[in-house]
Specification:
heterodimer, A: 7-stranded mixed sheet, 4-stranded antiparallel sheet, globular, B: 11 strands
């Protein structure tokens, strides 16, 4: 049971380049989330999904797109990267049902945009 | 939406002393309050949580208290140790919502 995994761990992009971050979970969780973490600003929600085929905007969605074609995967895309998107990105998942609420985080992706 | 405020932003304590972090929330419908610990370069991990039908919960050296009337909850760490040095985040989840609202975090440093 790997939990929540993220690919890649590190990436350096030039301004204007595109990339996709992959999040995978093997816990059969319904809900998945993408956050960015910047120094002194805590965790800010970018997009989230409440089930396969559904996505919704979070607090800071501009410049990002997401897709959830399979229940276990949640992809975060940057179509045209900007230096302001330099951050650490965390994916998380949580389950539906009794006792729901806890989010399980992936190890993070450190992205630098030059 | 829910708004969570967390204080203090930094906290330095002597090893063996207690540490207290306080959070307030705005949505009276919130009913789940987790605390996450994030060590340097690592992912946030749940250390303790409390639901709105409980006023206090303990797990060894950590405890969380909840005051629904005042809409605030606190994390208490007793007999602090160097490995307690980390960033701690509080969060709140409104009923029938899917999104946790996080506080801005508290950097705790335990001095040897």
């Amino acid at each position: 049971n790997a939990g929540v995994t993220q690919t890649p761990k590190f990436r350096v992009l030039k301004t204007g380049q595109s990339m996709t971050l992959l999040c995978a979970q093997d816990m059969n969780h319904e809900y998945m989330y993408w956050y960015r973490q910047d120094p002194g600003m805590g965790l800010r929600l970018i997009h989230y999904s409440v089930g396969e085929g559904t996505t919704a905007k979070g607090e800071v969605p501009d410049g990002y797109n997401v897709s959830r074609l399979k229940k276990q995967n949640f992809l975060l895309g940057l179509e045209s990267a900007a230096p302001s998107q330099t951050s650490v990105y965390f994916c998380a998942s949580s389950y539906l049902g009794q006792g729901y609420g806890e989010q399980f985080f992936g190890p993070g992706t450190r992205l630098t945009v030059l | 939406g829910e708004n969570v405020e967390q204080h203090p932003s930094t906290l330095s304590v002597q090893e063996g002393d207690s540490a207290v972090i306080k959070c307030t929330y705005s949505d009276s419908a919130s009913n789940y309050f987790p605390w996450y610990k994030q060590e340097l370069g690592k992912r946030p991990q749940l250390i303790i949580d409390i639901r709105s039908n409980v006023g206090e919960k303990k797990d060894q050296r950590i405890a969380v208290t909840l005051n629904k009337t005042a809409k605030h909850f606190s994390l208490h760490i007793t007999e602090t140790q160097p490995e307690d040095s980390a960033v701690y985040f509080c969060a709140a989840l409104p009923a029938n919502d899917y999104k946790l609202s996080f506080g801005a975090g508290t950097t705790v440093t335990v001095r040897a």
